[in-house]
Amino acid sequence: MTDITPYRIEVDDEQLTDLRRRLAATRWPEPETVDDWTQGIPLAYTKELCEYWASSYDWRRLESRLNDLDQFKTEIDGLGIHFLHLRSRHTGAAPLVLTHGWPGSIVEFLEVLDPLLDPTAHGGSAEDAFHLVVPTLPGFGFSDKPASPGWSVEKTADAWAHGYEWYFAQGGDWGAAVSTAIAIQDHEHCHGIHVNMPTVGVDQSTMGDLTDNEKDALAGIQHYRDWDSGYSKQQSTRPQTLGYGLVDSPAGQAAWIVEKFWSWTDNDGHPEDVLSRDQLLDNVMMYWLPACGASSGRISVTTPSRSRSAAASSPRRSSAPRDAGPRSATATLSTGTAWRRADTSPPSRCRTSSSASCGSVSGR
Q1: Whole domain around residue 176: which residue ranges?
Q2: pLDDT in tens, 177-203
Q3: 3-state class (DSSP) for residue 82
């Protein structure tokens, strides 16, 4: 790891003007031939969303919010990695690495940062506090784009391990895969993980005695394979071809991402049941502005064995644990460091939720 330097996001006005111009010039397809989302994101809603994006969405609001946080960049294995490093005011806080996935970004963590940093301000106790490292995956957001193959989940996990003497890791989607790899590769320093997309092998000896929940999960897996995995096949085989459309068309980039928020959130039929329009577009902007429609898909090429199947528990929505689980730990950060192993003592014990493991990876 090379020097760590402070980072600010500064998007030129010209980029925002160009975005509005491209949205206004969108050549729309004909509408879907069904009255639901089964053929993809509906035309009427996509137009409505893009019209709001062009006329009312305020990027400077998000830019200011992110710039109020401690952001940094460092070079790892020749690649610039963007990350947040946020210190809790509680002296007993435990280090925690939060890793996003696709079609996510660091903005998906914004609403949980304060409760994790300062749980006493949100009805919790000081022993539940964390120091946070929130990196952006290679090829995503404001991290650099790899110029050659090789940035797999395992390599990313190894890069993330250039951190504390001991720590916890959490993630969803690709972040779950990275966190799992961290637990396997760096179990000496990683003392527990929490993931909302566990990927484990099936114990064939249990298949004849399944619970109703397990049967429902298998149905969800089959639905994903039949109806919800086309994006993955495209990104894992031809991300460059896909990138020409996503990097050139903001309407196309928004549709590609927002449809998944419909499919993968616990909504009542519409993504805005659970996320605001601004929250949806905040995440889209983390792909549009850095033009990472192609580069964000390449992780699927470098890690071809990746599977979402264990996350599916219903025909359309995955069951995501919402609780990181209680744990007790004591840590002290080295003053003045950003993302570096500090002189800390490991936790004396680790109490985990069912979706976490302590020094190892657990399955079914």
Answers
A1: 4-357
A2: 999 999 999 999 999 999 998 877 788
A3: strand
